[in-house]
Records
---
Amino acid sequence: MKLIKWTIPLCAVLLITACKKKKDENIAFDKGPIMVNMADNYIIPGYADLKTKVTALETAWNDFLGDKTQAKLDVAKQAWINSNIAFQHVKAFDFGPAMTANIAFTFGTFPCDTTQINSNIQTGGYDLNASQNLDASGLDALDFLFYRPDALTRFQTTASACTYVSDIVSKMKSEITAVVNGWGAYRSTFVNGTSNESTSPFALLVNNFCKDFELCKTTKIGFPIGNHTLGIQQPNYLEARRSGIGRILLIENIKASRAIFYGLDLSGNTNGIGFDDYLNALEDKASLSTTIAARFDYMYLTPQSWTETLEELMTSSPGTLENFYAYQQSSVINMKTDMASAFGVLITYQDTDGD
Amino acid sequence: MGIKERWAGFLFREVSITPLIAFRIVIGSLFLFSTLRFLSNGWVKQLYIDPPFHFSYLGFDWVKPLPGYWMYLPFIVMVIASLGIILGAFYRISTSLFFLAFTYVELLDKSYYLNHYYFVSLVSFILIWLPAQAQFSLDAKRHPSIRRNTIPNWPVFLLQFQLGIVYCFAGIAKVNSDWLLEAQPLRMWLQAFRDLPLVGDLLASSWVAFVFSWFSCFYDLTIPFFLSNSKTRNLAYVFVVVFHILTWLLFPIGVFPWVMIFSTLIFFPASFHNKWLNVLKKWVRWTDNTQPGRHSTSRIVIGCISFFLIIQILIPFRYLLYPDNLFWHEEGFRFSWRVMLMEKKGYATFYVEDRISRKSIEITNSDYLSPQQIDQMSRQPDMILQFAHFLGKKYRDTTLHFGSKSVHLSRPRVTADVYVTLNGRPNQHFVSRETDLMQEEYNLKHRKWILPLEN
């Protein structure tokens, strides 16, 4: 008992000294506004924008079907570019209604399977929802169909090729419509889901933000430049290879990741509450916030200074792409270790070690 | 009396069997509940059937998952065996089967290692040897000759000791500068609750993290002693309940708090347990018959118990055999009751490299591993090495075709670039690509290829 009598005050003294050493640096912060800002100023407008762009694509395509000229095809192509750009801004939100509709995959899978596309067109009777047609539909399939050297002639002579495009477009239209409608009800779940359980919308947002940025790095650059194939370049893995807009899509993807981090609105003009503000409110994490922000700024600007397409760069200056990839890779480290740790977000559904 | 005689006298002192009977029913129910919970969460498929690769324990790579849906078999065995334990039916077979099935599943993959799983393995092993079916059980109903009202003290003591070990070592593990002087990782974890109404601001303030850290350390170190003392027991148990419910509310730690809340009832005397056991007994119309316990001091029993106790005390200290930081290198980390001690996250990229051209294949971890496995592997040295060896084997003597080109790999190098953050420190380089992991053996020796922790 004597021992206990002395330990308790001793512990108390030590505890008080330890406490004094560390000031209270946690600033009051509520995650709710991050979610509201994301939902109202970015995600919901982003999906609405994608729906508008896909609808415009549908209109342009129907217009072309009525009058199959190069000029009308060019209008449809531009509408396709606009849709693809709009998609880059929302593809990270692969949860809730988007996950139900699976649009991250149905819109975004590349490279497309040209053999499957051709055989579908030739034989007909395909089901675009079947799993083997995942690579034969979506935005990259349209890249192939719109930008073949003889695209116009083929559309003029092959009715089934036109039908195939119509089917892809109307499938995308119905999927994005489902997502837009789904968010009507999902919004309240989303903005209130700020707990740290792995299934909470906040955790889903953080995890999918990291995952999408990692995918951007791997699929848009890593695979084509040969990082997964012993340095042997794989230009056929390039996104939107035929139209050559891969660089634009890369920029737009990074723009989206950057916007999520900063809490920007869809136009990119207003800076609301985002991950950076949360990090700034946590003790000792302001420098991490500055680091990640600076990295995003760099990654957003750098590809804008490239004057060639990604495919051209792969020949003329492969080092440029390799360096950029390495920079993206080291940025993922900041997000997936430091930031995820600071946010206390879990990645698994499993029990952790208890006490 | 010499120490040997006193030890023998202590172990074989006659005590009531009631606390042991109560423990059997309570722990059997917990086994049943947690197995059913595991099944209903769909974890059997997610954790054991789906992943193509498993991280086995050193020396246990012969333990393999059963093919496909046969993996449900050990879980069904556990359900039946835990029913057997609760009812005291075919008690030795039931406890043995439960121990074997549970331990088999745990040995399959260290990604899912939890201290409380290790605890369940140990307790179910101990139960095999205890006469917990000797009263109020189906076995005792069928064979009245096995009925006892009293038993030697060692079965009850063994269980109390095992719980004491869990707490004391969890407490000792907390005596480190991160925990006591920085209140980490609790400080990071608690700030995530600042959105909570009313208590949010409180939980996010660092003095609360300090109080929690210091209190939990003190609690772990002392609670077994307060529970053992009849004067402090009731109050101590109130602390047990409050403490574990608090951790259950704050952290996703599954059934563990309930395991501790219910197991610690073993510290209570027969008079306490009779209150609820008598209700049960009345309900099933069970009457105890008084049979004198006949037990003589056995040197074999004393030897075995002493050996078990010494092993249990030594295992958690094995980390002292290794140089460098325990949290960083994790050598001697598991099986040591180090619970909720660190916030560690890593990012690991693996490369299979052609020795001749020095060109490499960057590996997409998710092609082979589940998110849980990636999460654990990216920060644990032994698992990083195991995954590297798996990749080395997979690509050994393979010809790869990339479009029109093909490359033959005979014995590729496997390297990893790994970065890890520990308890809120900025991430640091953990493994560099300089190391050919194929040249590093998977054994118990100190791993020099882990880059040192700075500060």
---
Amino acid sequence: MTTQTDTALTPAGEPTGSTTGLVGIPPHIGRGLATGGGILTIASTFLAWTWTDAFPGDLTFYGYPGGLQILVLIGGLLTTLFGLSSYGVKGLRWLTPAGADSAIKLSALAAFATAWYTVVAIAAELGGLANLEPGGWVAAVATLAALLGALSLPFQRPAPEPHDPDDTGWEQFRHKARHTGSVIKAAFASGTTKAPARKLPAYAEILIIIAALSLGLIVFTYGIGTEYDEQFIGFLITAGFGFAAAAKAGLVNRVSALTAKHRNITMIGAFVAAAAFPFTQSDDQYATIGVYILIFATVALGLNIVVGLAGLLDLGYVAFLGVGAYTAAMVSGSPSSPFDIHLPFWGAALLGAAVAMVFGVIIGAPTLRLRGDYLAIVTLGFGEIFRITVLNMDGTSGPDITNGSNGISSIPNLNILGFDFGQEHTIAGFTIARFANYFLLMLLITLIVVVVFRRSGDSRIGRAWVAIREDETAALAMGINGFRVKLIAFALGAALAGLAGSVQAHVTYTVTPEQYQFAHVVPPNSAFLLAAVVLGGMGTISGPLVGAALLYLIPAKLQFLGDYQLLAFGLALVLLMRFRPEGLIPNRRRQLEFHEEAEAPTVLSKAGA
Amino acid sequence: MTTDTTTKSAAPGATPGEAVLDARGVTMRFGGLTAVRNVDLTVNSGEIVGLIGPNGAGKTTFFNCLTGLYIPTEGEVRYKGTVLPSQSFKVTAAGVARTFQNIRLFSNMTVLENVLVGRHTRTKEGLWSALLRGPGFKKAEKESEERAMELLEFIGLAAKRDHLARNLPYGEQRKLEIARALASEPGLLLLDEPTAGMNPQETRATEELVFAIRDMGIAVLVIEHDMRFIFNLCDRVAVLVQGEKLVEGDSATVQGDERVVAAYLGEPYEDAPGQAEVTEVEAAEAQADAAPRKETDR
């Protein structure tokens, strides 16, 4: 399928340092081809791609696009817009502050990959290319043309390093492969920002932030609402390449500069956008996913204080979530709880956080004198001890407290000030059902954790955490009581996890020891939590949130992966660590840490920290 | 050559002659090895004292005994009359700040943040005030930042406040380390080879900086290899050879002492311990140095 591009990608005997495209089409024709291909792609999505509605998403209609066609439409639209912007069309130039060419390439790639994936999926699932309607062919040809045109756009080729004539064949091959790699990298490299951002009035900047946040909400809602595997894969392809295109065009930098300038507005806006999510749903099906993602993300964010800020590798973090959940469950008035207590929610939440914090101190006090790997081992052990202890306190192997493997079940729904979380409510014409209620409550907890993270990170104690992470001996010599400071981080992280756990217990009706394992197919568990932090970006707020959303959605949506899910997950993590060790949303500090030689700025603004 | 120092020795704000640091009979043994043996050293306020000695003489071991990184096997170290606690963060809180032989900045923090970390012991805001952000917190943060900026102006790095420490040139990293130590408002500053790897101009600038620090009323104890630097700078110099204090006095006395010359040129003097012992001491020191570092390396 991609052979055509592959052959074009391996140039032979190029003059050094030249500015040519990857494909031998004259640049002005290529640019036209890319833009025209984009327009044709848009048009093709309004045609029928197949004759039968057996392929999910029903691509048989003329006149309006459906399912995967919408994603191709977005790819085509991006290609066209970036293409027109590169021609300098008035009113579109703002789209590409850092040069349009690599953005065109990536958006063309987005359209191409999604369209060809669709076409191949149709052919494979329905049995042959005969099932394609003309629209499908048009889309395939149009996206291919756009991609070829985009790839012909010139870029500065890196000069090949001279190779050693004594090299063996394998070394020569490696040398060539490395050069090819750097050529491809250069082909998609972003241009330099030409003009500094035009000064906008504050309200316009805020409007841009709101637009970006709404776009984020739409993308997230779409991703959560994808109904079948093909659509989710198409979504991942389009969203991934589309985001990359926007980043290469310089849009992401612009927006992040604005969000850094208006941090509070961005935060409020982000939470309003997140709170709007249940209102965009007609039933409770996706709010369920939403609330689980939120629990996962909140706990990951709490872990980020421990791992990302203070640098303490905690492999048993999920146990604190369990402590909070069990505590809240026991005082919830559940019939299987050994205590006949029914605390109001605020009491249960505070108690959950407090008990988790006590456990944090109990675990932390002896172990935080250890450094590095030892701490990881001890926390790993604690995670298992918690689970097994809970499993054994069933009345036969130990005291009858936790009901063993049955867990504490039938946890009643929350009722805060007469608002019953188990009931459907109608707010301003929107129906909000059980999981949506909990989603909103959980969002409040997330907000608390975000505020705690931000405020503690940017303070005397936060600086002490980072100093300890950077160089413990030097930090001690600066008068920082390392043990105390680490214990605070550990206990704070535990308390936040306990807080999240107290909501989780009510969401899931039942708490069982199986929910709190080290590694398990369903997040949250310690391994996934750590992965979410690392994947998203250590030491950032948005990183773990994005990481957790991806780590929850991908296994939940790609059912066909089945048993290979953990394998795929491990592979993805290895690749990520190889190519982007700072995570998807890097802390500026981390980015500098890992890419010293790169073009990263040497000045770290306060907002970026 | 030394006129320079003597004229300046009357530091404002400090009463000269009062002992700031008083180490008595400090002995440090690693197993059967004695790296530092029965060393007495006093540093008076308004004084710059140098500590020299050939490699493996136990200078850094002695330094580490002063800063609470090691607990001396025998003897005691008093700071302004009270015995120094045995943990390095408490020593800093008591008023003894130090720099490191091999620069140990927080390399991924900004210049300003590095100095703010140095302020840690002089501020009290804990987690709760950070979370609640009351007026007291804001005031303290503002004061800390002002004080840190004063120090950055003092060492001439104010313009680079938002640069990452790792991106500073070598000489400026050394200066930043001194500023970070000064941020803890010490009464005594311990400098471990502050001019290592510097060119003559930078060494000269460091000299000026140390004089300026002394003039702020802070006593300074310097370990150094650079003889010219030490004899220029210090009011008193102590020579450590094979863990023992050989001689102590002003520059002229020390420079004129033939045992010092012998120790540096490698000639044997009376009762000189064998070479084997020197290497042994070195090895033990390296081990002791490596041990705490290994733990941080994670």
